[in-house]
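Journal club prep, notes for RB
We'll compare a predicted complex against what the paper describes. Inputs for the LJ64HWYM case:
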Amino acid sequence: MYYVSTRNKEDRRTAAQAIAQGLAADGGLMTPEVFPKLSQNALETMRDMSYQQRAVYVMGSFLDDFTSSELSAFASRAYGPDKFDVKAVAPVRDVDGNTYCLELWHGPTCAFKDMALQMLPHLLSAALVKNQEEKTVCILVATSGDTGKAALEGFKDVEKTRILVFYPKDGVSAIQQLQMVTQEGENVGVCSVVGNFDDAQTGVKRLFADPALREQLAGRGFFLSSANSINWGRVLPQIVYYISAYCDLMRDGKLQKGEALNVCVPTGNFGNILAAYYAKTMGVPIGKLICASNSNNVLTDFLRTGVYDRNRTFYNTMSPSMDILISSNLERLLFALTGHDDAEVRDYMAQLNQDGRYEVSPVLRDKLGKLFAAGYCDDTRTQQVIGRMWNEHKYLIDPHTAVAFEVLDQYRKETGDASPALVASTASPFKFCDSVLGALGVTELEQGTAILEQLSARTGVAAPAPLAGLKDKSVRFAQNVEKDHMVDQVLELLK
Ligand SMILES: N[C@@H](CCOP(=O)(O)O)C(=O)O
């Protein structure tokens, strides 16, 4: 199977090339030329498999330049008991008999990003060998909180890799920041950027597009790649968990063969919900894809009107991982829904770059409306939902998950569509202790890592071990740069 750039479908690469490259040379996103189909029989075959086996089954259908024994070895290392605190890896919790919650935060950094970033280093390391690459890869990451730590943990001390993470100063939670600045490993770097996530992400994309920098780094024996969801190796493992959740629900008798399941995903960069869309494209009986946003509701407006307009106020919210106005992966959706019309996608992206805005064709708008629903939720409501979920279900959820529960509720009320629904739960509530404690009515908050124990004491829920362990770690990274000086950090790390 080949992968093509969303901006030039003549640019064809193998999976190993696409994964090593991260982003296409023209700034487009590498995307499969065709999507394999999963029959109902295939879903039934997978029903009784472990998560690791399902990952091999699904990923194998996309990665024909990787052997099945390679993928099996990667899956057992990526999703083993030393990495995930539950055997199921991505368990599905029954909330009320018709609403299910896919818990994606049982990995080493307590966020859904682990699902892909425990796998990507294996894929990328193998890809370097397959491509006979002699240079060391330097992974540049922009994060609004979760990707950064998950990528650092995944690539820590991985041979022939370096990793540098940029996060917005004052744009991530205190625990998220502590997770990153205390990162161990000889090949890692972390730096805050003056600005918001969009500034960090745009800065990173600018570095990828800088031919002089690439040449200079090549001279030092390095090339650049990405661990953000612009890299296909990030999106593919995310498709697996939607398929796995559907199989779990069938196995447990909660869904009948072929029964539609709506899926509601809190998303900022659109990678997580795009993975659900791809699972649907492959044949999983997913009904409506419900896109949940916080007050940075650029995606809500886009999916409702067909107009993408990032010219609006950027809010720092209590669900920081979704504080994004330039949503990278939408480009892959546009490519899919235009029938791989790279010229049309190029045109939209050029308008976005120039005016911060584009409007899709009426045909595309209709397709979006049939596939997606969208809504958003502000911080006040987010805290109410956290409080309600705790009081009614004794279920402790994080602010991003709360946004999704609220938007699903809005959708059900507005449409009367009472189909079974799956909510993607993207992070542990312990990553956002202050907001969660506030939602539970606590006003006097402990400082530093003591707040983890405070949330535990208030709820009787134990903090995940990797977060509880933060109190023994020392801060290693305190660098802060203006967005125009990110290049200096790269050159410093790779000197
Ligand atoms: N929500 C992200 C932002 C980057 O998104 P990605 O899916 O492209 O890595 C984060 O937590 O950093």
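Talking point for the session: Residues 143-148, 228-229, 268-269, 271, 321, 328 surround LJ64HWYM (CB under 6 Å).
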